[in-house]
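To whoever is on call:

I kicked off a structure prediction for a single chain this morning and the downstream step that reads the tokens threw a length-mismatch warning. I double-checked the sequence; it's 305 residues and nothing unusual in it as far as I can see. Pasting both halves so you can look.
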Amino acid sequence: MTSQESAVTPDGVATDSVIHDIGFRHYDGPRLGRGWAFRSLFYETLRGSFGLGRPAKVKIMPWVLIVLFALPSLVMVAITILTASEELPLSYTMYPVAISLVVSLFIAGRAPYAVSRDLRDGIMPLYLSRPIRRQDYVYAKLLGLSAAVWIFVATPVTILFIGALLAKFSVKDAIFGWLGGLLMAAVLSILLTSISLVLASFTKRKGLGVAAVLSTLILLNGFVAVLVSVVDMQSSETAASYFAVLDPYMLVDGLGAAWLGVDTTFLYSQPDGALGAVYYSAVLLVVVTGCVAILLRRFKKVGGV
């Protein structure tokens, strides 16, 4: 038996208020609607990325990675203060790119958690039924995981900022450098999350999803490093910089130089003037929008809506 409350308006437009009565206790509370469902999915994805609300064994890996990722920043701060250095060993934008392996490990473990379990348990039709829609699910997962990765990356960046203040660096320079680091951390988070969710969405097994994401990011980094070196030898450093965008970390490294004027971590990820800056920005836009389009199509298929 199914009961519907205001399921269809007089003019024939469907609404979000639909109740399927299958014999359980009737719900007489408020209908929180589509926005509440979106926020719940976002919040659940964000919390779940750090193992919050999950068994203790699920919490171990993300928090170990957080410690491993933040520990070098603490060491750098201590060295800077003790040696009275005039600058940090790594800038706010360089740090996440220089220690990219730990970032890859984190996103590789979190992306399959966000989507593979839903696919494996076959609950996508429930998620994608009214009031929530297919695009709501995709955007909530994308934003929730991006926020988790941003927090992960922003933690050591903030430690470096605090260290700069303790070392009595210029407050103005420290604040602007820190804000730039947070901005590039957000860009890196969105880019990595988009790519990782696409890879994880094509398997129902978490282990395969982890392997797919991690191997893709590591192989891309190694392949592009060799490729740009060869192009540099055969052509020029400028030509090599146009191939550096194939690696997500080099792409974000170059965007930091293009948008903020900071130094790059990699030799070949320096955009060549205004044209290079536009090229790097366009690649970022194409990759993210392309990944979102693939996710929308993927979950349309598995959701049956």
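Update from on-call: the warning came from a stale cache, not from the record. Cleared it. Sanity check on the structure: Residues 1-10 have pLDDT under 50 and may be disordered.
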